[in-house]
Write a structure and sequence with these properties.
This protein has 242 residues and is α/β, with parallel strands linked by helices. The protein is built from seven helices and eleven strands. The strands form two sheets. A seven-stranded parallel sheet has the order 3-2-1-4-5-6-11, with helices on both faces. A four-stranded mixed sheet has the order 8-7-9-10, covered by helices on one side. It starts with a strand and ends in a 5-residue tail after the last strand.
Length: 242
Amino acid sequence: MSIDLILCGASGRLGLEVVKEIENHPSIKLAGCISSKNNKSIGEKISVLTNSSFDVELKSSFEGILKPDVILDVSSPNFFDEIVNFSKSNEAPLIVASTGHDDEQISMLKKLSESIPIMIAPNLSMGINYIKNFFNSFSLTSLTSDIEIHETHHKNKIDSPSGTALDLKDLFESKKEKLKVSIKSYRDDDSVGTHKIILNMHDETIEITHLANSRKIFAIGAITAIKWIHNQKPGLYSLSNI
């Protein structure tokens, strides 16, 4: 039995990578591709953009799209209301892998998770997930230093700091009260994504770095999330739950 997937942000850098990866997973059927109304490729087949076999038209809305099994959002917060409303009306599990959402939008997702499986995944990399699990495995209460997070992405990334950096900051602050966590953001021509965690201790420094060498790692993480959330009960999830 295949999983009918609607991909929002299909024509973006990550969206195109996800489309290519889906070809390696026959259990997932690409049932719809959504992109911005201003995208010049609206109306074209996604196969033209990805050199894939999918005969799916790139659309600017959900009009005419049937009820899916899962929705994956790798677009931007600008399309948030339409995606949430479509997920709610179809009771379709939703993976939010876009970033830059405000508190009100996050609250909407939490409310929706009472009736639908919702995953908030600002970074679909399994490596980042391992780092989060690593820090979750021990206490930071005895830590006497502050923590720095340095993140580097390509110059066209809209949000700054990155959603991953903010997610890590929330994690660290939840582990210890009054812990100071600072974020420094850098932009260059083509970085896929680098996150460095720095613990400056007395006369010693600990650094943990995650370097994304290609967007394929995020596409693989997306496939893992799609297959997992399809069978979950309503609730609010993250990649760490897998």
